[in-house]
Design goal:
The complex is a heterodimer of chains A (278) and B (298). Chain A is mainly alpha-helical. Chain A has 13 helices and two strands; from the N terminus they run ααββααααααααααα. Chain A has one domain. A two-stranded antiparallel sheet of chain A has the order 1-2. The two termini of chain A are 25 Å apart. Chain B is α/β, with parallel strands linked by helices and 298 residues long. The chains are: A mainly alpha (278), B alpha/beta (298).
């Protein structure tokens, strides 16, 4: 396993574009901390974002994982191109001739996905912990470590998303087209959502039930948007008469759906590789 | 003799195209094999199948007596296929380190093999800066990293300049001299003739000939004769029992035999019939002629 990982990490790390993207991903992650410094001073009305409660435990787990997940596209590019490059350089063929089995090849890519997601998760966890300890109004141990399922959801979400990218890289063989396909897929899911909601099930919640099984929808449902949960936003909502009964927790069903998709993507990737003549 | 690779009735079909048809081959340790065939005759496909990158349609192959899986067996094989494939952004050394990781070879081999192919001075240059000849030599170094029991080379001199071809050929000869089994696919006949002991001739995916290079032609050669009166010579020759046929070419008579006959005996026979020869040569077909003969007549 260490061997497979070191093979793959060497491929990524020696490539300047991948290295720069990976590094900028982690640097950008730390910039979430800069939100803390957002401050408006309008005379009598002072607005300091860090004191609006976004860095309160346990809300911070939700907020930071949601924001951090937006940056995943940086790593997605790295992962798609690490796969597509193997095709364009002809090195996939050479690796197999050099005695790597097809299973090992997929395993080395998937391990890399898991490791990158893992590092990103630990990174977000540590950063949130530090920010929280600095700005949170509640510092009891029990509160700090509550709602940690967001961290788990974040990890599952990244692994699922990157597995999708990996599969697209193998399917399409060209990084730009694979990313384009991802975009097209996203739009298709959007269209499907619209059709289900307004055409097929206009008066029921069946559309949500069906949509939760789509890969990208399932991934985005893992961590729902945290903004309407903020007390400020909530109180404005109540004032203008919108009652919000949204469930902000991590739905376990979604976790299993995303894990399911991850398995499906990896199996399909392996099958594609097995069937194709190089 | 230890069998390294045995191929049995291997076939491959790409849609409507039959790329390889019922190819069988046994590779014994220590020999140098050539696979000959025009472009598109199925050489690379056959090699691709045994190297685990192309899926067979039917048939079987087994490495080292079938005791291990293909990808495990490939750890004892060195192979380059068509064009050198490396990561362009890595240096020669880094690329070879990666191959070492995959094959489980020792990093110490890297400098040794780079020395062997004459790339030691450029070991820290990026692969993308290499010329085609250097890329091909790096590929050979990479294939040799695990000190393989068999080296498989597919068109190793394709697209190289004369110096490049010469360098690669020297390297191949050197490796062959060390007793490594080699399987060389090529359409360059003199290349195969110079290094190979056994040959497999393919055309349109079918085996036309398989065996030793020197036994490739059924007869033991032919005579090239010339006398003042070719007509008379020909009519006399055709009366002899051991002569199969005569063909006139460039003012000489090419005489093919049914059974071996010595030059002196032929000369004496003709002299007894009052024919004086002014040219008598026993010739063997070059591999090229034999190859053209084979691929034409089938």
């Amino acid at each position: 396993m260490k061997r497979l990982l070191s093979i793959e990490l060497q491929k990524i790390w020696k490539n300047r574009a991948s290295r720069v993207l990976t590094l900028s991903y982690f640097i950008l992650l730390t910039f979430i901390a800069l939100i803390a410094s957002i401050k408006f001073d309008l005379g009598p009305f002072q607005f300091h974002l860090a004191e609006m409660g976004i860095f309160n435990f346990p809300f911070i787990w939700h907020f930071n994982t949601y924001i951090a997940a937006i940056l995943k596209f940086f790593l997605a590019i790295v992962i798609v191109s690490m796969m597509a490059n193997e095709y364009s350089y002809g090195t996939l063929k050479q690796n197999l001739i050099d005695s790597l089995s097809k299973k090992e090849f997929i395993a080395s890519k998937f391990l890399t996905v898991v490791v990158l997601s893992g590092i990103s998760t630990v990174f977000v966890f540590v950063m949130s912990m530090i920010l929280g300890l600095c700005f949170s109004s509640y510092n009891e141990i029990g509160i700090i470590f509550s709602d940690l399922d967001y961290i788990l959801a974040y990890f599952v979400k990244l692994v699922g998303f990157f597995s999708f990218c990996l599969f697209l890289g193998i399917l399409v063989k060209r990084s730009a087209f694979a990313l384009g396909f991802l975009l097209v897929w996203n739009i298709l899911e959007g269209i499907a959502k619209g059709l289900l909601k307004f055409q097929l099930f206009p008066n029921s919640n069946n559309d949500e039930f069906v949509m939760q099984f789509f890969p990208l929808e399932a991934m985005s449902n893992l961590i729902v948007e945290p903004f309407t949960r903020l007390s400020v936003v909530k109180s404005i909502g109540t004032q203008i008469g919108i009652e919000n009964f949204k469930n902000y927790g991590v739905p376990w069903l979604e976790i299993f759906i995303v894990i399911g998709w991850t398995v499906i993507f990896m199996l399909m990737s392996y099958n594609l590789l097995k069937k194709r003549d190089l | 003799m230890e069998t390294i690779l045995s191929i049995e009735n291997l076939s491959k079909r790409f849609g409507p195209v039959q790329a390889v048809r019922n190819v069988s081959l046994e590779i014994q340790k220590g020999n140098v094999y050539g696979i000959l065939g025009p472009n598109g005759s199925g050489k690379s496909t056959t090699l691709g199948i045994v190297l685990n990158v192309v899926n067979k349609t039917s048939g079987n192959y087994s490495w080292f007596g079938g005791t291990m899986q293909t990808h495990e067996a490939l750890k004892k094989v060195g192979a380059i296929i068509e064009r050198p494939n490396f990561y362009p952004y890595m240096t020669a050394t880094e690329n070879l380190e990666l191959v070492c990781k995959i094959k489980g070879a020792d990093y110490l081999k890297i400098n040794e093999k780079l020395q062997l192919v004459g790339l030691i001075d450029r070991k820290n240059s990026k692969f993308s800066t290499f010329s085609l000849g250097m890329k091909q030599r790096l590929a050979i170094a990479s294939a040799l990293l695990n000190d393989p029991e068999i080296l498989i080379l597919d068109e190793p001199t394709n697209g190289l300049d004369p110096q490049g071809i010469h360098q690669i050929r020297d390297i191949i000869k050197m490796i062959a001299a060390q007793g490594t089994t080699i399987l060389l696919a090529s359409h360059l006949l003199d290349e195969v003739e110079k290094v190979c002991s056994h040959v497999l001739v393919l055309r349109k995916g079918e085996v036309l000939y398989s065996g030793r290079v020197d036994e490739m032609s059924a007869n033991d050669g032919f005579f090239e004769l010339q006398s003042d009166d070719l007509q008379q010579l020909q009519s006399v020759l055709l009366l002899l029992p051991k002569i199969e046929k005569c063909i006139e070419e460039n003012g000489k008579l090419l005489v093919y035999l049914k059974a071996p006959i010595k030059a002196q005996e032929l000369n004496r026979l003709l002299f007894e019939k009052n024919i004086v020869l002014n040219h008598l040569v026993l010739r063997k077909h070059s591999l090229e002629e034999q190859f053209l003969e084979l691929t034409k007549s089938h």
